[in-house]
Protein: DUF6285 domain-containing protein
Organism: Hyphomonas chukchiensis
Amino acid sequence: MHDAPSPSELVAAVKSFIDDAAAPQLTGHAAFHARVASNVLATLLRELEQRPAAEASEAERLRSLLDAPENADLAAMNRELCTRIRDGQFDAATPGLFKHLKTTTISQLAIDQPNYSGLKAALSEPR
């Protein structure tokens, strides 16, 4: 059985090394690149920790919205959603559409830009 270290633990260890050991000793362009690398690793950690649940929730909403089968592929459902919006089958009045788009956007922002000023406000609003 392989149970440790997990991918998240490995990424966190590298991030910790950059933040605590390497970056403090760097200056100029190298220090900038260390901050960029640390930010990339932080995003990767959020991807590993949050993406599975976000995608499961997104797929559930899409299955309901599109009346898709349980085994429908997320990417295929997103393409179908785009097609229905583009073709005018779905619009702002479509029940559940706005909630789905808002929830999906908030989930993506939480991963990509967790310090985005509008995210905190959006998270405090009732869904």
Remarks:
- Residues 7-124 form one domain.
- The helical segments are 7-22, 28-66, 74-86, 97-112, 117-124.
